Amino acid sequence: MRWLGLAIVVTIVLAIISLFVGVSDVSLGALLSSSPEDRPMQVLLISRIPRTLAIILSGASMAIAGLVMQMVVRNRFVEPSTAGTTESASLGFLVITLLAPGWPLMGKMLVSALFALAGTALFLRILRSVPLRDVLLVPLVGIMLGGIIGAVTAFIAYRYGLMASLLAWSMGDFSGILRGRYELLWIGLACCILAYIAADRFTVAGMGKDFTTNLGLNYQRVMVLGLIIVSLVSAVVLVSVGSIPFLGLIVPNLVSLMVGDNMRRTVPWVALGGAGFVLACDIIGRIVRYPYEIPISVVVGVIGSMIFLFLLLRTRRYAA
Amino acid sequence: MLNRSPAILAAFVAGALSLTAMTAVAQDKVITHPQGETTISGVPAKVLVQDWAAFDNLNALGVAVAGVPSSNGPSYLADAVPADALPLGSLFEPDFEGIAAAEADVYFVAARSASAYETSKDLVPTIDLSVNNGAIIEGVKANITKLGEVFDLQDKAAELNAALDAKVDEVKAAAAGKGDALVLVTNAGNLGVYGPDSRVSWVYNEVGIASALADVKDGDHGGDAVSFEFLLEVNPDWVFVVDRDAGTGENTGAAAALLDNELFNQTTAAQQGHIVYLDPQAAYITMHGYQGVMLLLDQVLAGLNG
């Protein structure tokens, strides 16, 4: 509990740094000496606070989505971007953008979430007919499925001359976040809370179907709840920010190494870890090429792939 | 037959011209270009292009073209493309088999297709019309001159170049004393800045509108990623917008919706209505085409005077 308190403090410190990093002069002094109509306060309210909130919300909810997914699939190396979920959400967003470009973002997001749901369900269906449940085979199947869905998406995008837009969607980037352009992410927070409430069920479901049924739980229902959480979070984050690779994989795994697998205990850690990790990466992205920015997906991709390799090699060593 | 007559007529004329040229003096011309020298005998009749800027230039000179890229045709050139033109593959990947089979007299590559030169030069006389982004107007004029030479249309080429110079001078005069500017590129909700080495560099380098930013090390495609806060601080007097979504096919208006926000609306450019939306296909796809550059110059001029 004491450690959790420390993690909260670290995350808050990162959030405060995030509020004060940027092109405009927003220092504490400037804020205190200016009236609410002046630029520092305006920038803080319109740009900095929304951006920091967007980072915290998307980081926490993507990490939780990864955790839930790992419980549902019972595999440590699965997360929305290694199970076809992100790609399906992207396909859904493309399809609805082509068919009904004038729809409000909320409607587009829901269609995107439905596609994500269907894609993830397809992934689980395929897994059921894969006899060998090797630890690395499961994410491999997911990555392949994601590749196929991604190819279909790319084909459609290419045909309609939308390749550049597709690339821009799938590139996670917080630079365009302003007041009024991130609020959908609060749905991600709702999903996190839902995951916390249902944490015990997911923990049990993570032990297998027979075990779950023996304890008198409806396994199917827990699975569906998990899938809905994962799909909604993936769609919301994709539509508002773009995809953030590896996040749902690294954070839950690191947390599991430290505090174990009881989801009731890990949810707060995973949420904090996700938020803190993305905050740190976004601050780096804003500083390295100041005053220009490096998109978050690039920074997370570089740091994340290194941690991913570390986790893979480590597991190998333990398994051998 | 009748509805396709302009293209056919042009082909006949070109053919007849080449015949007369051959009978009169079957002279070989050596054309130098960024990737070497290519020998053209007489006036080429069957012309293939792998690049829309090259097509734009040929069209400006009135040269008929037999083969064009099979995708990304800019809408401002849509009427100029013959319906029976041979599709030659994408802007990046030429269909070499089709090109070899076409037995053309000359084949133009540029920019995105410049790397095709190594392969195509053994199939058909190939000329690279790539233009350095640092001096686009100069490059376009040089290409027009070069093409005038290839097709014996020197007078027409000189006329076009004079018109381009006049237009540039007109924009220069209109821009004098109007303050600085920034060329923005929007892409699916993200913002980038184009600088003096980009595909619209002529705004800064050759028309003489000062960049609101001292140095932009811009990436070639999306520009340098920036935030709205950044725009607020740089606070340009003018903003020229390349809506990349529209440039590559998506609905227009996306850029206007993106820019209409609480931070951008506080900039000088937004408050004075100094936002000019450039033809995205001319700016993003053709970049170095004569008619495209003229179109963009006209838009800049209309914006500055408006």
UniProtKB/TrEMBL annotation, chain A:
GO molecular function: transmembrane transporter activity
One of the GO biological process terms: siderophore-iron import into cell
SUPFAM superfamilies according to UniProt: ABC transporter involved in vitamin B12 uptake, BtuC (SSF81345)
Residue intervals passing through the bilayer: 6-32, 53-73, 85-103, 110-130, 136-161, 182-202, 222-255, 267-288, 294-313
The keyword Transport appears for this protein: yes
Keyword tags: Cell membrane, Membrane, Transmembrane, Transmembrane helix, Transport
InterPro entries: ABC_BtuC-like, ABC_transptr_permease_BtuC
Any one cellular-component term (Gene Ontology): plasma membrane
Membrane topology term: Multi-pass membrane protein
Subcellular location: Cell membrane
Pfam families noted in UniProt: FecCD
Homology family: Belongs to the binding-protein-dependent transport system permease family. FecCD subfamily.
PANTHER family: FERRIC ENTEROBACTIN TRANSPORT SYSTEM PERMEASE PROTEIN, PETROBACTIN IMPORT SYSTEM PERMEASE PROTEIN YCLN
The protein's name: ABC transporter permease
Automatic annotation (TrEMBL), chain B:
Coiled-coil parts of chain: none
Primary localization class, coarse: other
Pfam families according to UniProt: Peripla_BP_2
Keywords: Ion transport, Iron, Iron transport, Signal, Transport
Record's subcellular location: Cell envelope
Fe/B12 periplasmic-binding domain: residues covered: 46-306
One GO CC term, this protein: outer membrane-bounded periplasmic space
Region forming the signal peptide: 1-26
Stored PROSITE patterns: FE_B12_PBP (PS50983)
Record-level GO BP terms: iron coordination entity transport
UniProt xrefs under InterPro entries: ABC_transptr_periplasmic_BD, Bact_iron-sidero_bind, FatB
Family membership noted in the UniProt record: Belongs to the bacterial solute-binding protein 8 family.
Stated name of the protein: ABC transporter substrate-binding protein
Species annotation: Devosia ginsengisoli
Lineage: Bacteria, Pseudomonadati, Pseudomonadota, Alphaproteobacteria, Hyphomicrobiales
